[in-house]
Design goal:
Elements: E1 3-14, E2 17-28, E3 32-36, H1 43-50, E4 60-63, E5 66-67, H2 73-79, E6 81-84, H3 96-103, H4 110-123, H5 125-129, H6 140-152, E7 158-162, H7 170-185, E8 189-193, H8 197-203, E9 206-211, E10 214-220, H9 221-226, H10 228-234
Parallel strand pairs: 3-8, 3-9, 6-7, 7-8
Antiparallel strand pairs: 1-2, 1-4, 4-5, 9-10
Length: about 240
């Protein structure tokens, strides 16, 4: 199990605000790693920096042996990292099918694309039923499934998930999380940012706790879930 992603001492600024302060973390091949922390701790900022939407000041982001810090977002997608953004951001005017096809825009292998489309429909049967429906008319849960399906269409090695439970009913959250586990078991490595610390820690292998731009705790997810400090701060215990 090699290291897939290694972030070393990155700092990220929004204008004058020092949002990420010397963060280092790593994700090994085959893992689900979660970043938990309060709103505004900087969890999403880290994902956006990995996916190339923000550029870090100093430090390095090493993905499969290459430093990708500051590279263009489309280059990073090509390298094998796919992000499901917070708030889903699907193309509302387009159909389910068109959204999924857009996910494969960097690929030329028609047969592979067809295979992956079948895989997405097997994993998300509800999307298949709504294949020609405008994405904007889907429910929140279905939109989240579509955003995940679209990200899987570029066959990522690493899937970045930003707040997948946001705005969803508890039953749907469970469903989405069990799908995340399936995706992981099928061979995709996952880095998950999540407000719902209970759910995140229940499926993750390892976890990092972020407080105002710094990592304050890290370790085995089950151990962190059992720790007094984490329970008090994040698990409503």
């Amino acid at each position: 199990m090699g290291t897939m992603l290694k972030i070393d001492d990155i700092n990220v600024f929004y204008g004058a605000i020092h949002a990420i302060k010397g963060v280092s973390l790593e994700v090994n091949e085959g893992e689900i790693v979660t970043l938990i922390g309060a709103n505004g701790a900087g969890k999403s900022t880290i994902l956006r920096t990995i996916s190339g939407l923000l550029k870090p000041k100093g430090g390095s982001i090493n993905f499969l042996g290459n430093d990708i810090a500051g590279k263009a977002a489309h280059e990073i997608v090509k390298a094998g990292i796919s992000q499901v953004p917070e708030g889903r951001r699907i193309f509302a005017e387009m159909t389910v099918l068109e959204n999924l096809e857009l996910g494969a825009f960097t690929r030329k292998d028609k047969d592979g694309i067809k295979e992956d489309m079948e895989m997405v429909f097997a994993r998300f049967p509800r999307l298949k039923e709504r294949i020609s429906q405008q994405a904007g008319t889907l429910s929140g849960g279905e939109q989240q499934m579509l955003a995940m399906g679209r990200a899987l269409m570029c066959r990522p090695k690493l899937l970045l998930l930003d707040e997948p439970s946001m705005g969803l009913a508890p039953l749907l959250i469970r469903e989405i999380f069990s799908i995340i586990e399936d995706i992981n078991k099928a061979g995709t490595t996952v880095l998950l940012v999540e407000q719902n610390a209970n759910m995140a820690l229940s499926i993750a292998h390892r976890a990092y706790v972020l407080e105002t731009g710094r990592i304050t705790l890290s370790g085995d997810a089950k151990k962190l879930a059992a720790s007094e400090d984490v329970r008090k701060a994040y698990l409503g215990g």
